[in-house]
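P.,

For your records, the input lines for the assembly:
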Amino acid sequence: MKSKINLVFDQCKKEKRAALITYTVAGDNNKSNSLKILTAISRYADILELGFPHNTPVADGGQIQESSHRAIQNGIKLRDVFQIAKKFKKIKPDKPIILMGYFNLIFQMGENKFLKFCKESGVDGLIVVDLPWPENKEFAKKCKKKSINFIQLLSPTTSKHRMKKIIKDSHDMIYYISMLSTTGGKLKVSPKKILKSYNKIKKINPKKNLVIGFGITNKTIKSLKSVNGLVVGSLLCKTITNSLKMRQNPVTKLVKIVYNLKKKIL
Amino acid sequence: MRIKKGIALIDQHDKNFMYGGKFGGNFVPETLKKPIEDLTNLFEKLRKDKKFIKERNYYFENYVGAPTPFIKLENLSDHLKGAQIYAKVVSEANGGAHKIYNATVHCLIARKAGKKYIIGDTGAGYAGKMLSMAAKKFGLKCKIFMGAKDISRQKPNVDAIKKNGAIIVPVKTGSQTLVDAVSECMRYWVSNCDTTHMCVGSTVGPNIFIKICAWSTAQISRELIHQVKDEFGKLPKKMRLINCVGGGSSAMGFWNEFMDTDAEFIGVEAGGPKKSKLHAAPLTNSSKIGILHGAAQYVVQDKEGQIGLTESISAGLDYPGISPLHCYLKDARRARYTSASDEEALKAFKLVSRLENISPSLEPSHAFAEAIRLAPKLNFSDIIIVNSCGDSIKDKDIIKNKLGSYIR
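C-alpha cells returned:
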C-alpha cells in the first residue's frame, strides 16, 4: 500500500506543482492553538511537519529556537505532541503529518515506545535532525517496519558517494538542505544553483520525492517551485512571534501566510 | 566495560566512534558530517606526521612554556597532617591555564586545513582567551562564543579576548552559560563550515573534537610522569591524581600517561551552591545517558530529555554534560568522581593561597577541596597530586565578592 506521503506527492505531480510543506512547533504558542494552527493551515499545506521542541537545538536559528522555547515554557511534553497529532489526524486523516526534532527526546523515551506512540497517533513520518546516516540505519529500519517514513537529509556538503548510499536507504521522501545554514537563515545561494544540485540528486533516483528546505520564504518560494516539495518553517515561527507581540491571533495570521505561499507555487 | 592497555584512550572507540559502546559518537546534522570527516582524516594524518609533531613540540616548549612546574605543597601537607600533597602548576603555562594546549593545536590544524577563520566556545573565558591568543599568533581571524552570564562574571578574560583582537559573540539563549555558548558556536559552524575551523574548548562534542583536545592536553601528563619519576626515583605506589572536571579536558590531559599505571584518578565535579539543586555533576549524581552537543554522555537532564540548568561559582565547570571519555572511565571504574560545593571550593582557595605560593582559580579549587578532605585520612607515604590548571586572577571579582578581599 502506498504511504499517505507518497499519495500526496502523486497528486501534486498530477497537478504539476510542488507540495507545500509547513513546519510549526507543537505547543506554540499553546497546545490548543497549535492544533488550531495545524487544522487551519492544512487547507493549503500538503504535508505538515510538527516539531517536538528541544531546549538545545544545535541546527536551529533564532526563530525556531524562540518557538521551541515558548512551547517548552508552556509545559509541552512528548505525550502532548502525540495528542496534538492524534487530534489533528481525526479531523484530517489523509493529511500527512511528520514529527521533527532531536534524537535525545526519542532516546529518553526509548525508540520502540516512541514509534509505538507515533503509530497510535497516526504520524506518517519522522525527521531527526541529529541522527544522520549511517547512525540512523537501524532506527530507520524500525520506522519502516511500522510503515513510518524516516526522512533522510542531504546537504550541500554531502558527497555524491554518500548521497547514493543515503538515497538507497531512504524511504518515500528526502529532504535537501538548500545551503550551509541553520534554519531561518537568509537564502545565500542562488535558486539556480540550488536547482542544479536538486537535479543532480534527482538523477541518482528520479522516483524519490525530493523536497527543499532552509531559506524558503514568501520571497524565495516562487523561484524554486519546479521541485517536488518546499518546506517553510522559520517564516511561520516568526509570524507567530510577531502576531503575539502585536496581540493578534496567530491562527488567522498563519493561515494568511500559508495561503499566500501556496498561491506563489501554483 | 574495561579500559584496554597499551592503546591511547582516545582511540578505544568502535567504528561508530563510541567508547564502551555507549558514549560519544557523532550525533550531528548532516551538514557537519563532511567537515567532521575531513577534519578526522586530516588529524589522523597529522598525528602520525613527524614534522607536525616536531612543530607542536616546538610551540609547546617555546610558546606555551613546557614543562610547567611540579612542586610540593609543604605547608599545606604539614597543615593537613596526612598525605604529601603536590601540585602540577599548569596555570604557569602561557595565558594562565591548560586551555592553551588545545588552542595551539587547533590553530596549527586550521593552518594545515587552509582555513583563515577560527571559532570557539568558552565558559570561564580561558578557552576563549587562549584561542584568541593563539589565533593572533598564527594569523587567524577569531570569533569567541560566550554566554552573557559568563561575560559579566569573567571580565578579566573577556578583556584579554578583546585585546587579542577577537570578536566576542554574547550568547543570550538558555542559561547564558557554557552549554549555550557551545550550541551557538556549533550553529555558526553549520553555517560557515566551508571557510571556518571550529575549536571545541573541551573534551566534548563530536568525536574528533574530543580526540584533538585530549591529544593536546596530554602534554600535561607527558611532563608530569617524568617529573614524578625524577622526584621519587620511580612512580610512588600510592598516588592519587586529583583534577576538577567540567567538560573534562584538563583531567584527561593530567591522567593520560598514567592510564596503564597504578595511579588512582579522582575527578571533582561542581556541586554548586550548598542549597542549590542545580549541580553540574552528572557523574557524581548518576545522571542518565543523553545526547548533548553531538555526543552520548551522562548529562543533567529532565525525564523528557530537555537539558538541565546547572549552577556553579566556577564558570568553567558549569556544564550539564561531561566528556564521553570520563563516562567511559567511570563505567570502567578506572576513575572515581565526586563533587565539591561552591563553599568548599572557596574555602580551599582561601587555604591554598594563604599557605602556598600558588593561586588556583575556582575550577582547580574544587580539586583542592577534595585533596583537603582526603589528605588527613591518609599517611605520609600517600602522594596526592592536584592539577592546578588555572590561575585565579580571572575570578578576582567573584572571590572579592564572596570572601571580602582577593589575596593571591
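Two observations worth noting. Chain B touches chain A at residues 16, 25-35, 173-174, 179, 183, 186-187, 190-194, 288-294, 301, 303-307 (CB under 8 Å). Chain B has two domains: 27-60+99-214, 65-96+218-403.

Regards
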